[in-house]
Amino acid sequence: MRITNGMQSASMLRSLQGSGERSMKLQEQLSTGRRINRPSDDPVGVSRLLRLNRDLSENEQYTKNAQDAKAVLDATDTALGGIDDILQRLHEIAISGANGTLPQASKDALADEVNELLGQLEQIGNTTYSGIYIFAGEKVDTEPYTLTGGPPYTGATFNGNDGKRSYEIAPGIKDTVNLTGHAEVFGDETTQNSIFDHVIQLRDALRADDNTIIESSIDVMSDDLDNIINLRSVIGAKYNKMDLTLDRLSTANTTITQQIADSGDTDVAKAIIQLKMEENVYQSALAVGSRIIPPSLADYLT
Fold it and tell me: Is the peptide bond before 152 cis (omega within 30 degrees of 0)?
């Protein structure tokens, strides 16, 4: 095969063009900080990056869900703590009121305090977090409790439902975080067996000097208090679970982010070395090319 000057010149130009293109690609990688700037740079790498970015996006949503769930649990525990304090005080009042030597004026004063505590219980029953009523079940926009028949109030109405709200914290894994006022926290007001009813019964018994009901209220308040303590244990366990979930998600996010960086980011040191090599190759190609171009043409150009 005869090698002509034209063939040598064309080969030289292709080499110069290839070296220039590689240099431009390396310069782009260095300026953008990304090894892959378009699908054609690395089709397989692009597919991997898409999967990793999808996983990162999902993990970030699970993290947000877990954070929201944890905040609801925190608000719930705070509310339960308030109920705990009120029930402890009511238990003390019932013990004091059961004293047969206590004058009626003192019992009336205790009844007034019980009535104030009843109002505080209603406020706690209508606790909100981020605009939703935490004890209303799935009817998060509805104020769950309304005191009725007064003042002085003689009962309470539950306006929510017993629905559970869940948060997805992993693929296919959902966890419920809310406690319903009617079924779990305050009890069944329709049968007059809720905390509200127990408080009203104690108040009225103090005013009526009914020692039988006052004495029975001691055990009733103790039972209500035990229920709240148990619920706080349940909430505490769920809270710890959310902490562990957030730790796991944080570790996963860090790992995925590093994988994305490894797959798509520019290795700056390596790119600089390659760019320097391409510059040397380009300069060498120019030097060789000056000898390939026919002397007459070179002379003409000069």
Answer: yes
Contact status, residue 240 vs residue 69, Cβ threshold 8 Å: no
Query: What is the pTM for the complete model shown?
Result: 0.74
The residue written with tokens 């019992």 in the block is: 107
145-148/155-158 β-pairing? antiparallel
Predicted local confidence at residue 75, as pLDDT: 96
Rounded to whole angstroms, what are the CA distances from 96 to 120, 208, 217, 276?
Answer: 21, 15, 11, 90
Distance CA 71, CA 81 (A): 15
> What is the 3 state secondary structure string of 129-160?
ECCEECCCCCCCCCCCEEEECCCCCCEEEECC
Q: Which of 48-52, 143-147, 275-279 has the lowest mean pLDDT?
A: 275-279
pLDDT at 18: 56
- Which among 141, 185, 146 is positioned nearest to 162, based on CA atoms? 185
**Which amino acid would we find at residue 13?**
L
- With a CB cutoff of 8 Å and minimum separation 6, the contacts of 224 are 87, 187, 195, 198
To 5 degrees, how large is the angle CA 277–CA 279–CA 283?
Answer: 115
